[in-house]
C-alpha cells in the first residue's frame, strides 16, 4: 500500500515537473519571439527595404543590426517650428518639410557590444556625415536643428559604439544634427551637468540655428528608432526603460541618461546646475527645475523608450557626491543663481573630427569643502 502511494506520488511529482518544464519552455519561446520573430516577418522586412529605397537621395548604408518594426511609431507631436532650408539639393523641385513620422524607420533594433568596433569602420559606414559630425537630410526640410551633447572623459571605447549606432538611426529619423563631445580637461572631479551647460553655449556659438538640445550619456544606445531624437512641446526624457533597471522607469521623477530640451525650455530653467561634482543628483535637480517652472516631462511609450547601457565600472574621479541628497532639496533656492547664467569655463580646444566635434574644456574643481567630502 505504502509502495503504491509512493508510486502515485512520484508519478504526480513527475507530471508536475513535466508541466513546469513545458510552461518554462512556452515562456522562453514567447520571450524569444518577442525579439526575434520579426526576423521571420519577410513581408514587413520587404516593406522596410522598399521604404528606404523609395527615397531617391537616401544613403546606401543599411540600418545596422536592425529588424523591422512591430507597429506604428508613437504619434506624439513634436514641437512645431519649421526650419528654413539650409541644405539645397541639386534637384529642381523645392524640398518639402520632412514628414512628422519618418517613413524609413525599422522599429526595434538589435544592439550588442561584443563585436569589435573602430572609428575607421564608423567613418566608412557613414560617408554622408560631414566633418564635425554634422548631417542634414538631403530629401526633405528638417523641422528642427538638433545639437546632441555628450559629457565625456576617457570613454573612447564607448564613443565608437555610440557613433556606430546613432549616426544611422538619426539619419533614418531625418534629423538635422551635430554631435558634440564635451570633454572634461584634467583629472579633477567629473561634473556632468556643467559640461552639458558648456555644450549648450558652444554648440550655439558653432551654429546659432540650433533650436533643440539632446543630452546623452556616451554609453546609452536606443533599442528602437521610433524613439525620435527631437524636441517636444514639453521637456523630453528619452531613456525610459534601461536594461540595467529591468526596462522600467526606476522612479517617476527619473530624468537621467538621455533627455532633450528646446532652446527656450532650457533657458526657462536657467540651464543645468553647475555645482554637482561627482556622480548623482544632477538629473534630479534638472527634473526639479522643470517642474518648478511649470513644465511637465514627456516620454515615449515604455516599449519604444528602451535602451542598452554598455556595462562599465564607476570611473575614477566620479565618486558619488555625498552632497546630492541635500542639494536636490534646495533646487528652488539655487536654480536662479546657479545655471547657464552663472556658467564659467575655459575653452581648451575645439577639434573637428569626421564623426563628431570635440570640445575640450576646463571647468574647475569643487570648492575645498566638497573636495574633502
Ligand atoms: C547615471 C545616469 C546619468 C547620470 C549619472 C549620475 C543612467 C543610465 N544614467 O549614469 O545620466 O545622471 O547616473 O551622474 O542612469 N562620463 C565620462 N567619463 C567619466 C564619468 C562620466 O565620460 O569619467 C560621462 C559618460 O557620458 C557617462 C555619463 O557621464 O555615460 C554618466 O556617468 P556614468 O555612466 O558613470 O554613470 P551612470 O551609468 O550611473
Ligand atoms: Mn553609464
TrEMBL record:
It catalyses: N-acetyl-D-glucosamine + UDP-alpha-D-galactose = beta-D-galactosyl-(1->4)-N-acetyl-D-glucosamine + UDP + H(+). Keywords: Disulfide bond, Glycoprotein, Glycosyltransferase, Golgi apparatus, Manganese, Membrane, Metal-binding, Signal-anchor, Transferase, Transmembrane, Transmembrane helix. It comes from the Eukaryota. GO terms for biological process: carbohydrate metabolic process; cerebellar Purkinje cell layer development; locomotory behavior; memory; visual learning. Residues 53-68, 79-93 have a biased composition (Polar residues). This is Beta-1,4-galactosyltransferase. It is found in: Golgi apparatus membrane. Its cofactor is Mn(2+). Residues 53-103 are annotated as: Disordered. GO terms for cellular component: Golgi cisterna membrane; Golgi membrane; nucleoplasm. It holds the Pfam family Glyco_transf_7C. Responsible for the synthesis of complex-type N-linked oligosaccharides in many glycoproteins as well as the carbohydrate moieties of glycolipids. Residues 98-231 form the Galactosyltransferase N-terminal domain. CDD domains: b4GalT (cd00899). The chain crosses the membrane at residues 12-33.
